[in-house]
């Protein structure tokens, strides 16, 4: 069985450096993670966590071999027409470039289905911010709202 990978673009908001990656959709991971190699390639700023976090794998070993000590400044994540600003926990020596975990899945609640042997995903179109109740809401003018009604992305 192949992993559930989707094509994404990450942009460093300070330098405007943009790179293409394959993001792993992982329901077994609680957070959104990025490899230290991708952070270097993007020249992304990062800051130290007040307390390191451990990500234990199924076999009991630590993901990346060490606790996570850093988090990125917000990066722009683009998936088709969907975009958002997101911070990633930086994992040293991670095989995947990016992991979108349960925190991301819970926030966006994408529709995921299987069709003729392929995994497919539908996401709302961005840009979005979180409303007071924690649900995503659009930031478009009222005159533009009708243009996006019913539009969704298929990957």
TrEMBL record:
Top-level taxon of origin: Eukaryota
InterPro entries: Peptidase_aspartic_dom_sf (IPR021109)
Region Disordered, residue ranges: 129-155
Pfam family, one: gag-asp_proteas
Full protein name: Peptidase A2 domain-containing protein
